[in-house]
Specification:
Four copies of one chain form a homotetramer. The first copy, chain A, is of the alpha/beta class. The first copy, chain A, is about 30% helix and about 20% strand. Chain A has twelve helices and 13 strands. In chain A, about 60% of the residues are buried. Chains B and C meet through strand 7, strand 8, strand 9, strand 10 and strand 12 of B and strand 7, strand 8, strand 9, strand 10 and strand 12 of C.
């Protein structure tokens, strides 16, 4: 039985890890860390765990935690994981960090977009970007897994095969995405009150959202060169779900656009055998309701011959594949388990 | 492996049975019956099942179905199950009927409240009311289980111990309840369109909702006499969930109201060992979010010394404990399995 | 032109007063008081007022304000108005207080339910309870109008004629109500975050909500005696709206229940000529969507002959008739204007 | 007093016209046409009009209607207006058509995208596209006004000044938009049921939505040449609101991108004096909540120097500026009234 600790267990992502691991046959949570609620019963914060979890919230002492568990999930604000990690800890446990601390390889890019100093730059190099479908071999050997952002998971996977195969011009890539409100976390802010969010939609972080460099870096690896893109997130009035609609110019061969079949083949080359990626049938588009509560990524595309562009679309549950589900998937890889263990979740509808 | 057929598999309750049985270790759905969608892929109706269910929708030929399965779930409008059932079928399969056809023992009460003729009154007597926590012994031996209504499951369980123990006057019982919209089914009606329901709440079926006689009959057994109550359902703008707030006058002993502890003891007497019933801590009240996606019933109460009344409150997920979950629980009982098999569902939040 | 000041202009009720007065032909807001946002542009807090209101937020100096305006609306937490009011101010301006400070005539009841000391008990006696349809004559002469609570407005008006006419036994009265989330105010609390409220319903303040004594006092006047009732509020996932479902035993005459017509006549006696009260057609029940954005109260009832009870139902927009609309209606009365001036609002749907 | 008739008065757009005209000082509705509800009281369909509108629904006999009114609003499916209009009618009344029948000048484009035959192509030429801020001079003289689509109103106005001034390359224009559900109309379809739409977001009409040629035609006039664009609509779980996020490459001059100020000047050149267009302050982006219930269009932009693109954003209430409000604005222009008469609506929040 893998022993897991969660730092930040009372945030939405942390609580989703707790939910997933409760049903995981080979792992259990033994440390529910939450600085804000120390000594309070975890189930008094999240009533869904009443009669299921008896534990009380603990502090975020990573040293002590490292002695008690096999894997630590840090579902905390940027900077915390980097400020706590050290060699002693890494020699004892695996760390799966849900913050952005180890996602970007260039520390100056991190510091520019996140506007904080990185406290453990020496570990950036060894940390592995935990986008399981792309990096599973490296993940298996890692000590620190940088769990990808929610928008980025969806945005990258939706476009990856076409960038990799050179079917689209990556410099024309525009990612227009929307997210449910749980992505904003559980902090008590006026902007996230029910009445402020309900019955409204809005863009935010326009041209400067922090997930931009993460998408650029990863798709840049696929493209084999640096790329810059536009990424615009929007807030939609729903609890969960990310929907990415992405635009790019198709690259013509012999003055002809790639056909539907050629694009389909590219997607299948990479995703055909992926448990968690569902390439939808032709002309069926992703909807967040069909992935809610599950680790699936639903993907499809449409070629617009009039403009020569392709519209790629992807949907995930931001708390599952966009956070906790992928974190558990990474844990499974790290510990040599079947990748879908504890993650055979049927999306719940309605 | 128990083979199950669902008649009405494309309604919300039918689809929830499908979802639950996909994760059930000892049962599988082999017949997705849906008159409206015959020969269409089930996953084209419910995209959440894409890549998980390959089957096409079948008709509702119960005779043929009886040859192929061990248990039939009828998640269909009132009258259908009664019109199809016969001795030949019942000799081959168990039937768990999610409609009201076999819930009321008095056929005239059924015909008065449902305004249709009962087509199989001869089976009413032998059918067992499938409220598992109350009737599990009889259920185990049944051929037909009448799966309780959603409002009724919540309303009865919330008041049952106090009626049974004579702590409240059942003739003063008032059940004020609200439901999410999935309880209204998937029929294409203007009244259930998004814009008609969203941002609004309304009472309906005032003083004549069909779940009234069902609550009265069952609580009448507990009271040991016939009772009449008030039951008012309301529609609330959310997908799932039933919340029942119930009022009754406490019966004084020696001119004193029962204490909190006395009432608590009564609840615990019946529910202490029930897996799916959670008596909440003092002054913590049920909220539908904490049971969503699970088979739990959350219950608590508050004594108002000023008025001498008790306020009892219960919450369930209408599609799980109020329909599909309880149906699977009944299946487990019928087939001698552990009652919680396939039902260890952690409520999903948010 | 009546000059109005709002203390608490950045709360939801305060902002609704601002919205209503913008369209009022004889009044204008000249002071947007908001301690939290002093010197910030009001339209930067509420973007709906962009290009409509140029003013910046002011402090809540009631002395200074009294020199500049004819009427002050205090849309502030309990205790603030009572702590600021004095004879000097009252000699200059009318005060319409949306808090509970002057609603209850018995200061000990106030202090018991609100758990704060009343700072101006000497003004309680002269303050007039601003339920316009009941008290308009006294309101016209008042210096302080205690604007009723949202739940109370709906709860009282729904039952008032039957209590007054002695058709129901007031001691059997149970008020089960639900509210949209704007009633909880704009404070940054975890409990009111979008994801905490969305897709859920819950009771709160069970047997001890502060609107209870207010309902009891006012309906007690109608009954001609002290009464105690049960009042249970619930939170529903929608921005606006209050729905009250009320139960009481009908009083028999000559062993017969009152008829539908007799009850109807009682309602019409009081409400027939009321602009803002709509007695719905038989068997049409109030829904909050039909009053949203307006000052209407929709009311209807159903007699249950089986139990001898009547179910009374009422719906209002909590921010309009339940707060700002009634406040403006009170202002109109205070200044001798037509009561519906600026309030001919057609409910907006959907 | 202008007498108005509405054909399609029981659709959402028709009902919104009814709501707006109730508060219009110089117009009144004398004919509530609704084929589906003939002889039913209008307020029995839309309870918000109870006690405000006494009329019953009429048929859609345009000939007869033309004798009784000054202006006819057709808020009906595509094809109906074109099938009814004739010279006799147009000699008597003005027609404001909310369908697409007269929006596209090229009948073959209409027939290709709408897949129906145009029944009155002879009137296409004289019909005026009723985008008030652009075409008010021509509208004033028209007999038929083609009221623009909801997405198109928002999409065109958001980009118009930059296309007109040559600041962006129109062939790079991508419009990514989302809409509330009222845009889908009041037809009883499973896809628009509460539970199907709630808690989900989806793209639809990808690369083939019918508003595409309308945007292309109008922005093509501004560009002085034919253009093709990408337009992707999405459905979001809210009643009202359209949010358009638009991307285009800025055109460099002397190898430099236009500055914020240069772009701002272009917007102000066209919109500075427009009552209903609000250019937001720098870095404040449109949100649908701030325009809900009003005729406003909120617009802003952000230059992304990294990619050389501009992101333009606009928000409207789809039922007001996107349908009924603009229709009333067109009526005001047609009859020489102040353009904002009856439209000084303060957005309602929350």
């Amino acid at each position: 039985m893998i022993k897991a600790g969660i730092i930040g267990a009372t945030g939405y992502a942390g609580a989703e890890i707790a939910r997933l691991l409760l049903a995981h046959p080979q792992a259990e949570v033994v440390w529910y860390g939450s600085r804000s609620y120390i000594d309070e019963k975890y189930s008094s914060i999240y009533g869904n765990f009443f009669k299921l979890v008896d534990a009380k919230c603990m502090d975020d002492n990573m040293e002590e935690l490292a002695d008690q568990v096999d894997v630590i999930f840090t579902a905390t604000p940027q900077g915390l994981c980097a400020s706590l990690v050290n060699e002693d800890i890494l020699n004892k446990v695996k760390i799966i960090d849900l913050s952005a601390d180890f996602r970007l390889k260039d520390v100056s890019v991190y510091e520019k977009w996140y506007k904080i100093e990185h406290k453990a730059p020496s570990y950036i190099e060894e940390a592995v970007y935990g986008l399981c479908e792309i990096n599973r071999k490296d993940i298996a050997k890692a000590r620190i897994v940088a769990n990808p952002g929610c928008y980025t998971t969806c945005s990258i996977l939706t476009a990856y095969p076409l960038v990799k195969e050179g079917l689209i011009d990556p410099d024309t890539l525009i990612v227009d995405a929307l997210s449910g409100v749980s992505g904003a976390g559980r902090g008590a802010k006026v902007a996230n009150l029910y009445c402020e969010v309900n019955e409204s939609a809005k863009p935010y972080g326009v041209a400067n959202h922090r997930h931009t460099p993460e998408i650029e870096e990863q798709l840049g690896y696929a493209a084999g060169k640096e790329i810059v893109i536009n990424f615009t997130p929007h807030l939609a009035p729903m609890n969960r779900g990310i929907l990415a609609t992405e635009y790019a110019s198709l690259i013509k061969k012999d003055d002809k656009l790639p056909t539907y079949e050629e694009v389909r083949v590219a997607y299948e080359k990479y995703y055909k055998n992926e448990t968690f990626i569902r390439l939808l049938d032709k002309d069926v588009y992703p909807e967040t309701r069909w992935v809610e509560g599950s680790n699936f990524v639903d993907i499809n595309f449409k070629i617009d011959e009039r403009t020569g562009r392709i519209i790629m679309m992807g949907a995930i549950d931001n708390l599952v594949k966009g956070a906790a589900g992928q974190a558990v998937q990474n844990m499974n890889i790290l510990f040599g388990l079947s990748e879908d263990m504890g993650l055979k979740l049927v999306p719940a509808f309605p």
